[in-house]
Amino acid sequence: MSSESSCKPVNLFFTLNKPEDGDDSKKCPIIFVHGFFSTNRTWNFVKYKIANKTKRKVYSLDLRNHGLSGYSEFFTSRHCMVDIENFMKSQNIPKAIFVAHSLGSRSVMDLALKKPELVEKLIVEDMTVTDTTDHPTNTKRLRLFTTFVDRCIRNAPADTSESDLHKKTLPMIKQFYPEISESFTSKIIALPLKKDKSGKITWDMNVEALFHYFDNLHLFQIDLSDQPKFLGKSLFLFGEKSPLKKEENEDVTLKYFPNAQFYIFKGGFHTFHLEFTELFIEVVSNFIEE
Predict the structure, then answer these.
(1) How far apart are the first and last CA of the chain?
(2) Residue 205 phi, psi dihedral angles, 5° rounding
(3) What count of other Cβ atoms lies within 10 Å of the Cβ of residue 80?
(4) What is the C-alpha separation between 15 and 17, in angstroms, rounded?
(5) Contact by Cβ (8 Å): 40, 67
(6) Which of 119, 137, 212, 242 is the most buried (most CB within 10 A)?
(7) Does 136 have pLDDT greater than 80?
(8) Kind plus residue range of the DSSP H or E element containing 236
């Protein structure tokens, strides 16, 4: 599989939610972008309240090779960025506020640096501008876990339910990710699964393309060779238990996002919008409206 290709966009599946009392048409919308090994559904616990608090329309996307969006052999940060830009054009969105998680944040940061006119504000959840020294180790752990789940899916009897598969993988989640509080485990690692036409549980993503990423980590590095800067407001969210540390990444973040703010979730590991739902809603909504 080659990464060399003109960045032809794929169509992105999305959901649109509006505030219960109507949106303020003068305000630009919010676009939620999930991370690796996820879908737009990960935002269901927070997007409705954020829409109501900010009086803004909220779009939640499936990235390429995830959920109901188009599949492609090409899966890089730049391809995902082009998809997002194409989505904005198709929906007549001239500018948006982005809330992005994990690997999805790389594509959104890339967009902010390359096309700042499209981004009003940026919220990055547990991701760095550049790869950290332990990034390969963290990715290896995710690959081992994904390989285990893939084996469970392939070997599961035809009548296995999604709930049964979650129960089977729960002990491995605890083994691979001991940092996650047990009370949050089943909620945080919500496996991206669906039933195929025969009724058998399968992945709700293009697992072949995603496995290719594990062997090509450079495909999601941002090209910083021309020293780009995003001068808009941005908020970088870190977690106390996350391998990604604010103090180790603050200088490089401010180099490219000079107006960045930082927030650390005490006890947080990686998916703060699920670990600390109400606090996440408050922090993000306040930043959007300030």
Answers:
(1) 45
(2) -165, 165
(3) 30
(4) 7
(5) yes
(6) 119
(7) no
(8) strand 233-239
